[in-house]
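Q: I'm writing a short explainer about Probable membrane transporter protein for a general audience and would like to include a description of its predicted shape. Could you first generate the structure from this sequence?
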Amino acid sequence: MSSAELIGFLVLAGAAAYAQTLTGFAFGLITMGGVGLTGLLPLPDAAMIVSVLTLTNAAQMLLKGWRDVAWREFGFVMAASIPMVFVGYWLLEWLAGTQADLLRLLLGLVIIVSSLQLLRRPEPLAKQSGDGSFVAVGAIAGLMGGMFSTAGPPLVYHFYRQPMPMVTVRETLVTVFALNAVFRIGLVVLSGNLPSGSTLTGLFAIPVVIGMTYAARRWPPSVAATTMRRIVFVLLFLSGVSLGAPAVAHLFGGLS
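A: Of course. Here's the predicted structure. Afterward I'll give you a sentence or two in plain language.
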């Protein structure tokens, strides 16, 4: 990675961390979307670095919050999530090597669908959902996490609808993200697909992410939370369209 590319990645990761702190999710979506649009890094390498950054952020939060985790629901989620992380990672490696346009189209669709969540606040349920629902969202989260290191959107929406204390929801989600990141990083190491030393300089984003997370909490922007969510929605939606549209043109152009 050249100096200009590294600076670009650090700016992107910092902006994503700032948005994540203010909206509750979107770190992986913004980072992966920005990388896909700019070509700063190959998508598999970017997903690896996002996993490390996610684990770093989660470890900070869990130093004090692990006692509030809903361990029963966490178990159901992880039972389905872990095997699907393997499936998602295999799909990413296969598509990156043979179907790059299809991979960009899938990432664009994931970003577009996930961005729509920012427009709709989860309506709380009077009664907790059944165990099977946690298994189902765990499987989807594992697949998305394995492919793009973006396990959050369906899981966040489901948990925030449950009649649980907010701190329990937050710490349970963070624990899921952390364990998914550990398994995904382990897969990358075991498969021998570690990014090059030059690409690993992207890990310089760790202090940037920590600093921007602190800045968002300490000096939040003077705009309403709803306005901020709409701004992030527009950015994500346009990123998803910008990624997916050229991929569709190439795919259909190749068929004609």
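A: For your explainer, you could say: The CA atoms of residues 16 and 27 lie 5 Å apart.
Q: Perfect, that's easy to follow.
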